[in-house]
Amino acid sequence: MGLINLQRGPYVVLITGREAVGTIGSSTVYRVSATRVVRVADDRTPSGFDAADEATYVRLLENALQTPSFYFSYDMDLTCSLQRQDSGSNDVFFFNKYLAEPIINAVGSQSVFVLPVIHGFFACKPVEVRGTRFNYVLVTRRGRYRQGTRYLSRGADAEGHVSNYAETEQIVDFSSGDQMAYVQVRGSIPIMWAQVPNMHYVPELRIDVNASHERFQTHMTRMIDEYNEVVAVNLINKVKYEKPMGDAFAALSAEMKSPQYHYVHFDFHKECSRMRWDRISLLMDELSSLNTRFGYYEKKASHVQRQQLGVVRTNCMDCLDRTNVVQSELARLALEWQLRSSHVIEQTESVSSFPVLRQMLNNVWADNADTVSCAYSGTGALKTDFTRTGKRTYMGALRDGRNSVERYVRGNFFDGERQDSIDLLLGAYRVRASRPFAQTLSSEARALVGTIYVCLFMLAYAFFYPRNHSWFGVSNVAFVGAWCGVLCLVFCVVRAKHTAELVNWPRLVAHPMRPQVIKTNASIKLPIVDRWLEPSAQS
Fold first, then answer.
1. Do the bridges between strand 311-315 and strand 230-234 make them parallel or antiparallel, or are there none, so unpaired?
2. Which of 71, 113, 336, 451 is the most exposed place for a label (fewest CB within 10 A)?
3. What rounded mean pLDDT belongs to the chain?
């Protein structure tokens, strides 16, 4: 995959395992199944070297590489859609570009030693409809710029790159060699905004519209240059918490004077409330004329018959759950157009007329939704019961509740380190002589964390050794209730005063909207707690 410089010098990132997962035309696509980070032999110890920090860098890099979502091909460039295969590697989706740069600089981008790798999703399913055989291929390419985790990477940067940006291409690959492809895009709302983790279920929303004009224009102009025409479909709520985001998006869209840019706001939660998911058809009808004009890419007998002339860019707040539902519906409509134009199905038939095809399509798109969601939020997607079955279920709603709780926990207590892993892999942070992993908490924060450990210990003790040998005895219930009360009180104090310290913030690239940390009596030591909280400071 390439090289990366850490404190002690260069390390080689190797692909040591691969698995063939399908084909596009005659090109085999492989999933990376194993990687290895190997230090280039060098006995020198540079000034400022810290063994503990070096081990942490290596661990972060290995964690970033463990995701089972890297794909490559020796015969075609997966960073480009079928329509752009002759344009050279797409810099946005060349996920290992930072790692490959030393090799590119040494031997050139066309060398056999340069292997473009994408991060995202790939599926290839053989299908037969009325005697016609084809492979249904779905490829999602995640962008390498402004990449990160859900609450720690939002909006657009100064260069117009947005968080959770991804291109999804649906390919109908006939055994005759004919190919059809339909491309969609998702990406965070292209303004300067953030949801600042503060241990509340709904984090604090911050928007800077004044700083967003140039970012918005840069992003949308780049998309028009890439895709010719763009319709931005905004799925967020028009009321309450999300309303300021929608107002800002609409205002900036109104300033976009290009006839190649279109804006549609569809309040997904309002229109599809109370399980009325069939009302997505209202949005499909609204997009119908534009989507028909955009068309799709088609190649027959090695000759291009038509090209896709525009793209639908879909977003919600996370660009995950609502976005997945809408993109899967657009893909279904595109597949029907493609199969009808190829005379595989009749003009009056749809995907629903073929249960096996419909189930395959639903499952592939649900798998794609889960993969993209895991990469950004750390959990599977919400609303996949609709994507898989075509209807919303109460069991699906319960699963969504569980995933929402897990997202809350990850977003507040675990995603900082995951953000560090991504920043290191993609070159957003370049290692230098510093101690980014050292931290010093205020004495009050130390005491609060120590109290949390004590509470958890006492609750565990009450579970394994209940008083009077009865979990539900009065004395044991009172004991558990008292410690639960202390735990809740401590949590409230932490949430009110210490989120700047105790939320799991990234350490390599500072979050621009992290609250300022105010420390008092930081020199006071709590020996037992210190050993738990600051192992790096003790090394």
1. parallel
2. 113
3. 88
